Amino acid sequence: MRTIIEPFRIKMTEALPITTRSEREVLLARAFNNVFLLDADHVTIDLLTDSGTGAMSDRQWAALMLGDESYAGSRSWRRFEQTVREITGFKHIFPTHQGRAAERILAATRLKKGNVVPNNGHFDTTRANIEYVGAIATDLPSTEARDLHSEKRFKGNMDLDGLARAIGVEGAANIPFCMITVTNNTGGGQPVSMENIRRVKELLKIYNIPLMIDACRFAENAFFIKECEQGFADRSLLEIAREMFSLADGATMSAKKDGLANIGGFLACNNDSWADDFRNLLILTEGFPTYGGLAGRDLEAISVGLMEALEIDYQRYRHATVEYLASALIARGIPIVRPAGGHAIFIDAAAFCPHLRASDYPGIGLVNALYLEGGVRAVELGSVMFGKPAPEGGEEIATPHELVRLAFPRRVYTQSHFDYLIEVLDVVWRERASIEAYRITEQAPFLRHFTAHYERADV
């Protein structure tokens, strides 16, 4: 059949909040024009993030009842360890309460001030943890990624020439490790090819630089490789995932994405010395190494979810959902990052709002317009999230692209929800000239987008 249906049926529902525009105007003002500060009870369609917002399966809920809450060496830990090792092959595996905890331990134990970490695209918490210890997070996206609207595949790849130049300039000794994020969230959820990962590893091996994979969406990346890269059509997603991880020396992961769980993550590696450092800091800040800040029931749910994410029918449905929305927006002329990524639609806010400058934060204007029009919560990925103050003060340094991400929670919304979303976007698109400029009135030194306060620039 041509219609790809949800490979599940619904056995429990959760009421959606329905609000009026006048109510939303008051609520957004109370939240200082920052949708992060809205109560979820005031959001109808919540596409803020796909992290921990998915629906667990009946098998995951059943697994919760098997949770062994022993402090050390629980049965749940052994099942978790076995599952992660079956997928990744790594020697040392450490559970953490979420992905940013793994990033923090990695950065705190391996980096010092002035070190450089190349990546195809650091996302917000990865960058923040690297910069917090005084190191430098360097993005090296592929040259194809610069054209947001081209239909080339694997635009999430790392720029190999750029990586070679970075090693030449910085010196291998100043690059404690390199990272590849799969899929490349910062770059529009674009996938990374197996060939690119292999070639990155070959280059790094010359200089004895370890490779870490940010594996939040490893299963979605594996699906892209199966569908779009020559030689993988007959391979299972598990086989493809194993090959990806075999090219790396370690990984960080938020299990709140392709672990299909509401909390959790892990840090893994093959190096015994690294593992000793990870373990010591994990005990200090997360918990004993066999639970890492998680309950046994969480470990059980992740163990099931990691394997469910590698089911081909699930991935076909998820990618068809993204394509459904992408096709509708393209047909209306709405500018999005193309081709569609694996977990979200990324709107080109600069092209959507040509009357606004980067310093007007067009992404914030668009995010707020979506909420006011239909109670839809999205997130800005532009000069608020990734912009930087110029050296010694002055104007901010804008990002190359001003994006707004509509992230899809896993197994949560149906086609009618997306049809509603299309209607909301259609109205906002037709009235885009009225989208307002914003300025920041209060911000934190790191990850400012979470708590910043805004006001309309004409106030």
UniProtKB/TrEMBL annotation:
Pfam families: Beta_elim_lyase (PF01212)
Names of required cofactors: pyridoxal 5'-phosphate
Residues with N6-(pyridoxal phosphate)lysine modification: K257
Key words, A-Z: Lyase, Pyridoxal phosphate
Oxidoreductase is among the record's keywords: no
GO terms (BP aspect): aromatic amino acid metabolic process
Domain Aromatic amino acid beta-eliminating lyase/threonine aldolase: 46-421
GO MF annotation list: carbon-carbon lyase activity
Family label: Belongs to the beta-eliminating lyase family.
Subunit-structure text: Homotetramer.
Protein's UniProt name: Tryptophanase
Source species of the chain: Methylocystis hirsuta
